[in-house]
Amino acid sequence: MDPQTGAGARTQADGIPDGGYAALPPDPRATLPPVRRWLPILGYHARVFRRVWRGVVYSRLGSPLLALLAVGWGVGLLVDRGGRGGVPWHGVTLPYAVFVVPAILASTAMMTGFGESSWPVLAAIKWQGTYHAMLATPMRTRDILAGHVAQVGWQLAAGAAAIVALAAPFGVWHSWWVLAAVPVATLTGLGFATVMTAVAARSETEGWFTAIFRVVATPLMLFSGTYFPIESLPTMLQPLAWATPLWHGVEACRAFATGLVDVGAVLGHVAALVGFCAVGVAWSARELHRRLVR
Amino acid sequence: MSARVASLSRVTARADADSPPALIEASALTKRFGDFTAVDAIDVQVHAGESFGFLGPNGAGKSSTMRMIAAVSPVTSGTLRIFGLDPATHGPDIRSALGVVPQKDTLDEELTVEENLWIYGRYFGLSWAECRRRTVELLDFAQLSERASDKVEPLSGGMKRRLTIARSLINEPRILLLDEPTTGLDPQARHVLWDRLFRLKRQGVTLVVTTHYMDEAEQLCDRLVVMDHGRIVAEGSPRALIEQHATREVLELRFADEDSAVHLPSVEGLGERVEVLPDRLLVYADDGDGALAAAHARGVEPLSALVRRASLEDVFLHLTGRTLVD
């Protein structure tokens, strides 16, 4: 508290210990307890978002909407007129739009996860020094990571919710269970976001990011059961799809969107996504610490 | 701010009376990156209310030392205590009472001037109301009140630097660490900044400064160490160091020849000693004008001659054989 004005919420006057400087340890300051310490970092991200949200909304919702129209409706016309009248999926035949739009939901989350954790993280480490500024305060690398994950998480959730709402008038959701696809898509995105954070923390240049978008993101987008069932892949390639978070995200989103929920399978997919996130968090925590604290 | 200032100086005065334990205490402090030893077993003590400097050329280990003191870089060996605490185990506690002005500004250019301060205060766990209150005071101190709601990006280098200093004060730190505070600023901006730092110093804030500018060290530091290749090569007040390692005045002689060393024999003995730089000879003598007259009497004809007071630059040159700024 300020002794003259009586204002403020400090735990101790002027930050000076009662015994003067002879009392060596820092006076108890108003530092947040460790479990909540990261919250102001989320506050920082929210404030930056407030400056740029228009551009973000256009780019985040624009491309999934275009995909919905071009693929769901355009390609869907061809597929649904074909011999089988739709796409076979776990013993049922789905209209193509119903099959593909949940996958667009999941793969958009993947792209958002990649995007939010590549350039922005390297910028905060290297170009702008944002993370170094944070570390000069009571923040620790784990608080920085928690704040980052929370900010990517809420952006993913908001994006997925918006896509669910925008796609609803097209009649592609067959069940109210689709609301559960929002957290599933968020988890899918976070799996990629956390791994990408670790990659960014290891990067000296941005060269890696373009490579990862080309070599990892695009093939995943095409071959994870998004646009066609992985049963159409050569048998030997199918296990590869199982190893990617995107396939699990797509399958779980599709189950919720159609209402054809096989509880065991969905729990398995969610467990896999949680596992990917856990690995991503552990790895990125390690890499961030190694990069920033040296 | 004024309330804080009053009690800070009160405490400092009391602390001076019965020589307090050091705020920063390093012994055999060492930092290695792989095979490279950036800081090589240095011993440093900084007391409350002091302005302490690390002077040395780029790569001398000043910034590595600062990062260890800032509790963001692990100590390789030796001991380091800040407020009596070990940064390895009490990093956040130490940092809660430090202000850090890094070499490169790490402001958020997308945000406004005041937002930068609010957000930073929040990292220290301050309430919004407290952040706002201190922001008003600090912007006034940094002479940035009129730019409060402007974005940071278009500000001048000097303004950004002052904002960084304001930001580092948001938690009312007990020690302010400044790494190369005026590097890259034009002379006028440097003087404005020095004026602000001088006010802080007068208010009793403990300053720790790294610099490779000897004029900055002379302006700001009560006591400093000269660093070279990760080691401390000298320690003392600027005046004591100059008295110890240089003469009162210096005669600088420039010649037309490519290599000024050929003129060395003809100026030998004019002062206590002579240093040879690529472009000039430095004759160390308590009476520079006398030395110049003696040189003229010997028939030495330089292109130009200059008599000046000895500075920390001369101290460094004497101790290391090199100049501070290449």
Q: Report the largest inter-chain contact.
A: A-B, 47 and 58 residues
CATH architecture of the largest domain in chain B: 3-Layer(aba) Sandwich
Largest sheet of chain B: 6 strands, mixed
Number of strands of chain A: 2
The count of DSSP E runs of length 2 or more, i.e. the number of strands of chain B, is 13
Share of residues in helices of chain A: 55-70%
Radius of gyration of chain B: 22 Å
* Oligomeric composition of the shown chains: heterodimer
CATH top level label of the largest domain in chain B? Alpha Beta
Helix content of chain B: 25-40%
Separation of the first and last Cα atoms of chain B: 40 Å
Shape of chain B: globular
CATH superfamily of the largest domain in chain B: P-loop containing nucleotide triphosphate hydrolases
Summarize the structure.
The complex is a heterodimer of chains A (294) and B (326). Chain A is built from ten helices and two strands.
What does it look like?
Chain A is an all-alpha fold. Chain A contains ten helices and two strands; from the N terminus they run H-E-E-H-H-H-H-H-H-H-H-H. In chain A, strands 1-2 form a two-stranded antiparallel ribbon. In chain A, a hairpin with a 2-residue loop joins strand 1 and strand 2 (92-94). Chain A is elongated and about 75 Å long. The two termini of chain A are 36 Å apart. The chains are: A mainly alpha (294), B alpha/beta (326). At the A-B interface, helix 1 and helix 4 of A face helix 1, helix 3, helix 4 and helix 5 of B.
